[in-house]
Amino acid sequence: ARFEGRHSDFLNPAMKRLQQELIRRWAPQGRVLIPLLEADGKIVAAGFSYQGAWSDVALVRYTDAGALDTSFGAGGKTILSFSALDDFAFAAALSPEGGILLGGSTPGVGLHRDLLIARCTSNGALDTGFAGGAGYTRSAELNATQECRGLAAQSDGRILFAGKTSSGGGRILL
């Protein structure tokens, strides 16, 4: 297991210890990509979890004491499946209204992957007030793979994301 996140997260000793603990807890079942610290001290960890042969996007929330927050998702965990195949979250951020933004990829046409942006409510449910009621959106480019690898929420609620695509020699998406 390894983490991908903002480089500043790795410079903070407390975040480094948290990342090591999350790897210890999640490594056998999936991969934690980035921990998010909520204003009340609770920690949301985003990544993916293997569900049988395929992976799904996964969120887990811990209380400030380190226990699973049972008011979040199902017993402190949320598993999101956007397809019958592998779904991945590679990026996460807290939104100004208290929700959780996720970025990653989901299967596209053929062997290609589509860029995925999803938003969950503060209790871990897919936010049906986002993307026309679906709670997520995907961006497909025919004959190309796209992935969201970083995202942030502006104070006005707009979402900024960065990623990569296989078209045009591996261009960067902004």
List the helices and strands and how they pair.
Elements: H1 7-11, H2 13-26, E1 30-37, E2 43-51, E3 54-62, E4 77-80, E5 88-94, E6 100-107, E7 113-120, E8 136-139, E9 146-153, E10 159-165, E11 172-173
Antiparallel strand pairs: 1-2, 2-3, 3-4, 5-6, 6-7, 7-8, 9-10, 10-11
What does this molecule look like?
The protein is mainly beta. The chain is about 10% helix and about 45% strand. The chain has helices spanning about 5-10, 15-25; strands spanning about 30-35, 45-50, 55-60, 75-80, 90-95, 100-105, 115-120, 135-140, 145-155, 160-165, 170-174. The strands form 3 sheets. It has a 4-stranded antiparallel β-sheet, with helices on one face. A 4-stranded antiparallel β-sheet has the order 5-6-7-8, with no helix packed on it. Strands 9-10-11 form a 3-stranded antiparallel β-sheet, with no helix packed on it.
Compact description:
The chain is mainly β and 174 residues long.
List keywords for this structure.
single chain; 174 residues; mainly beta; 4-stranded antiparallel sheet; 2 helices; 11% helix; disordered N terminus
Report the principal-axis shape: globular
C-alpha termini separation? 27 Å
Biggest sheet strand order reads 1-2-3-4
The tally of helices reads: 2
Radius of gyration: 15 Å
Strand content: 35-45%
Overall pLDDT level:
80
Structural class: mainly beta
Give the low-pLDDT segments.
Answer: 1-11
Helicity range of the residues? 10-25%
Order of helices and strands: HHEEEEEEEEEEE
What's the count of strands? Answer: 11
Q: Main β-sheet, in a few words?
A: 4 strands, antiparallel
